[in-house]
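Listing S7. Sequence submitted for prediction.
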Amino acid sequence: MSRLDELNHAQKQRLAFIDFCLQYFGQISRQDLITKFATGLAAATRDLALYRELAPNNLKLVHPTRHYQRQAQFSALFEHNPQAILSGLASGFGDGLSQPLVPSQVCIDAQQLIHPQPDIIAAVMRAIQQGVALQISYVSTSSGENVREIVPHRLINNGQRWHVRAYDRTHQQFTDFVVTRIKQVRKEQLEVAAHEQPAADTAWFTPVELVVVPHPSLRHPEAIALDYGMRDGQLILQSNAALAAYLLRSWSVDCSQAHKITSGVCQLALKNHAVLQQLEHLSIVPGAGQ
């Protein structure tokens, strides 16, 4: 029987929380434990001491900040389920902790579909929290496997799979990488220039308004209006220039100039066609360019 098996459920919960914070946020403090479990300072100190006894190479106390930092030789004590991780981060698990960023603001879940490997999610999330770059082995559909350097700032489920929004040093622009195509994180803690930081991602911070209506080919448009809770026969969706194309594809919105898609695939149509000029990834938008 391992030492972990000898612990009671409450102790395991607290140690798993320490393990999770180190793996996904890169740090934890005694105050984080006190806030999460409503324990006292002495109890939090004991829990961290026990965790260090079980995994001495996983963390190191940084005295100026009083935070325990994740070490490079970190080896997780607990198995964290990918679906639970991403859903928890997106729904607010970890909010209010002493982290550089609020997890639910940088991990946005639209749907639960394909999930990446936990170690890859962890490395990307740490880089987002700490504002650093990653060197990765990435497989693209156009060029196969290559070593890329990226500066990530958001995790997004685009309706089909998880993407990481990041600055791409190869093409010198902000774009999206499919997380399941990251085979390996080779290096962390690469320096980041000002033009690579999240604030420079213009498309992400450009709000757009999508006005969708029932497709004009429908015999009974009121049915669709009821499905989507439309008012005055239309629905106004708020998005940004980086994500709007994914939304239009996921909802099968006919974005052709004269709403020419009449096969029945599209039950919605885009009313304000001019907004397409602001969007990224137009190649995936139904009817764009027609």
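Caption to Listing S7: primary sequence and predicted structure tokens for the chain studied. The radius of gyration is 23 Å. The mean pLDDT is 90.
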